[in-house]
Amino acid sequence: MTDSTIIREPFPIFFTSKRYLLYNIDVITYVRREHHICGVLIGSLPQVPQQNVFLGVPLELMPEEAKLLVSEGAAFIVDDASLHKARLPVLKGAERKAFAQKLHTEGVEAARIARQQSEQRQEKALRRLKTDGKPDQIAAPGMGAIIEGVEPEEFDESRSLFPGSSDSASIQPELSAKDTIAFGITPTTSFPPFPPPTKSTSPHVLEAVDFYALYAYLHSRDYYLSPGLRFGCQYLVYPGDPLRFHSHFLAVEMGWDEEFDLLDLVGGGRLGTGVKKSFLIGGLEGGNALNEGEEADDKAEERVRTFCIEWGGM
Length: 314
Description:
By secondary structure, this protein is α+β, with helices and mostly antiparallel strands. The chain contains seven helices and twelve strands. It has helices at residues 25-35, 63-71, 80-87, 93-131, 213-220, 262-274, 298-301; strands at 11-16, 19-22, 40-43, 56-61, 75-79, 137-139, 146-148, 224-227, 235-238, 249-253, 278-284, 304-309.
């Protein structure tokens, strides 16, 4: 890791549409490596919005994960929309011009790369046609038309594609790199052009978390946790990084005096056993005081009780 990618705490967690998001890939890898927090990647490609197999940034954090990072002093919450609206009128003059020039430069580079890739595909197609023994064909530069029976070295760019057409309709030479039309670039973050937010300039308060005691208890014992919706539980609990281990527990937090149906325990135990995991329930003895302002210290974590249920019926 170079000096330019060293993550300094506390780092911002962006609160957008009631979601806690991380946009910086360096922060995402740092949080996973140092804090054992994986989150869920939710970014998709604009051209393929329905694909959900290979997702990218941003990374969405569970409210429990965001609260843990804030309580440890590793992060702070930024209301992204409010901060953007507050700082947008401040961007004027030279700063606005410099940012616009930066976007234009990125657009020119993107257009150059796209044009180069298009030319490479064209050349590859021509080589394949020659290898297959078909009549020689070449594509007019910058055009989709194919001219048959003309060798690449004999082709005259000034020659018209259509007999009898005027000189103005002849093939135009390719644009130079300097004349390349820039692609439009949409910035994905507000920083730049704005300076990065700091804890003092972002006094956003973390919203209340319904359940936190069990999450903090398991995380303090070096477990990795991820959302457990696909298995009908709150958390999937891993003994190490989910990329290396299968989960061991299906965890559900309950209030100490909360009433529950016995069939829920039977169903959870059977489901856990069926997928080679244990069904774990837990809660804070005496009530969920961690959500009422109590600090998540070691003494409070000792008050969390957990029970594992396995289905033993034959």
